[in-house]
Amino acid sequence: MDLNPAVQKMSLSQQQLGKGVPCLRCKGICAGFEPHSWRKICKSCKCSQEDHSLSSEVEDDRKIGRLLAESKYSTLTARVKGGDGIRIYKRNRMIMTNPIATGKDPTFDTITYEWAPPGLTQKLAIHYMELIPKEMQPVTGTEGAYNRRRQLMRQLPIYDQDPSRCRGLSESEFKLMEDFVKKYKSDALGVGEVALPGQGGLPKDEGKQQEKNEAAGSAVPTTNGNASDSQKEVEYYCEHCKQATPSDCPVVYADRVGYNRQWHPACFVCAKCTEPLVDLIYFWKNGAIWCGRHYCESVRPRCAGCDEIIFSEDYQRVEDLAWHKKHFVCEGCELLLTGRAYIVEKGKLLCPTCSKSKRS
What spans are recorded as compositionally biased (Basic and acidic residues) (predicted)? Predict the structure, then answer.
């Protein structure tokens, strides 16, 4: 089978990405990341790449920049100087510095959020952060920041958007994947917008002016909601939990859905896995918002062995799981199981011998 030149040029350094990085799940038990030749796991501890937090901030920003480039959200990216057309994510960070009086000399308490919704006043951005679970707030050096990095790898794997990062694509499969990516960028990809109820889709300056007006106590007319007459306060409801969204609390809008719907910040989650959508990046399909991973899986099968989307029509399927033919192997001894007896236990493909040894 002829491989695409872009795939053949994958460097040894890419294949050995993150070698030796400690596992955050094993916490000292694993000697460091030892890449499997084709699975997205550590050979030493069997944990995933996310658990080793292999990516860097720069790599993450390049990945999201590539995802948003050539889409209607390309304004959230910037061209890298001398980068031969490469675009990088203009990630909005928020730094808060509060003085703390200690005797005669004040010190400063600085909190840095590795990501915050863009285009908001700091007051509204802080309010947004307060409305999401503490463990998901991406404050530098905390579990929340690690969770964000893990979500970026899990929800938006690089091999779902860049065919050169997939292993073994044929020329025809490479082209199919390019078309697949172009289509989801055009038809499904979105980035949530944060605003107060009734202010979704407004120019940012206008939204900020309305926020000032409300703070000053002046009435702001709205055109959507469930008011029975113009004198009643308009009521808004979360699309996910169906509970009311207070007029002074920020909500999330998805432009592909329409600005007559909104979500509480903690309710803007994937319809499949119910994980909060990292950096508000969503995919719209069949009346629901999805993370990138589960959107792609809803369109094409994902290999349970290598975790990549399958673009060949010749693959192995068992119930609701799929494998590339060459990856239909035992997870214990890696024996090719095509035409042999096998057992699927909790999503793991095993030969009878390895299955028996796991039970004993």
Answer: 203-214
pLDDT tens digits along 54-92: 678 999 999 999 999 999 999 999 998 877 778 999 999
| Residue from 152, 158, 185, 147 nearest 307 by CA | 158
Q: Is residue 43 part of a domain?
A: no
pLDDT in tens, 162-179: 999 998 899 999 999 999
pLDDT of 232 reads: 54
User: Using the 8-state DSSP alphabet, how is residue 280 labeled?
Assistant: G
Q: Which residues pair with 233 in a beta bridge?
A: none
CA 77 to chain CA centroid, nearest Å: 16
Q: How far is CA 179 from CA 64, 80, 162, 174, 191, in A?
A: 18, 25, 11, 9, 21
Residue numbers of the domain that contains 109 = 94-146
- How many domains does the chain fold into? 1
What is the arithmetic mean of pLDDT over 241-249?
96
Q: ∠ CA 131-238-115 to the nearest 5 degrees? A: 35
Q: How far apart are CA 258 and CA 261, in angstroms?
A: 6
Retrieve residue 223's tokens.
């055109």
Q: In this structure, are residues 21 and 33 in contact, taking their beta carbons and an 8 Å threshold?
A: yes
Tell whether 142 is covered by a domain. yes
Q: Which residues contact 227 (CB under 8 A, 6 or more apart)?
A: 233, 234, 235
Residue 1 has pLDDT above 60, yes or no: no
Domain membership flag for residue 108? yes
Residue 224 predicted with pLDDT over 90 = no
